[in-house]
Amino acid sequence: LAKTTQPISMDSYEGQEVNITCSHNNIATNDYITWYQQFPSQGPRFIIQGYKTKVTNEVASLFIPADRKSSTLSLPRVSLSDTAVYYCLVGDMRTNAGKSTFGDGTTLTVKP
Amino acid sequence: NAGVMQNPRHLVRRRGQEARLRCSPMKGHSHVYWYRQLPEEGLKFMVYLQKENIIDESGMPKERFSAEFPKEGPSILRIQQVVRGDSAAYFCASSPRGQGHSYEQYFGPGTRLTVT
Fold first, then answer.
1. Count of CB atoms within 10 A of residue A108's CB?
2. In a mutagenesis test of the A interface, which of B37, B46, B48, B105 is the best target, namely the one with the most A β-carbons within 10 Å?
3. What is the pLDDT of residues A32-72, one digit of tens each?
């Protein structure tokens, strides 16, 4: 599984756009990029998944450059309830049995 | 459609006792994963199971830990002779997988094991 590197923590204010970047220099051809959100005392929750270019859903956008060595999770207009830990995962979801190592994630703190 | 169910939510065991953690996947999901999360750390993969089969247990400690996912009933993670270092949150996730699925995993609320 490709190793990922994320900032340990980020601060933001309500209403701002937040971009969290994840580095994955050793990403393999068949690897997908997946982001999860985890609140204290809860299990992680799937946010978004992509392979290349840009993916958008009702919660977030995921930007992946052509070389795929990094990715950026974009959260538009964050609120206090977006305070959580965000994990970036990279892996071949078809052949590695969905096994994922979550790393330490990025703790996002949204302030009023 | 109910989400992934785990029970108990909290479990206290004395050193040397056995801990049994249960996980019922989402309806229609036949793939189950177990993770362990120590305080202030990320989740660590333990084992991946399909019905009646262990597919990947590379993250499981070699001793005292076992997992099963029988044809009927929930998946069970069993820890024998617990030690204080086993205190952690144990999360179960399920996935539909297969052709056409995005391979995302749906997590349960976790079982918090405390060994005294």
1. 21
2. B105
3. 898 999 998 899 998 999 999 999 999 999 999 999 999 99
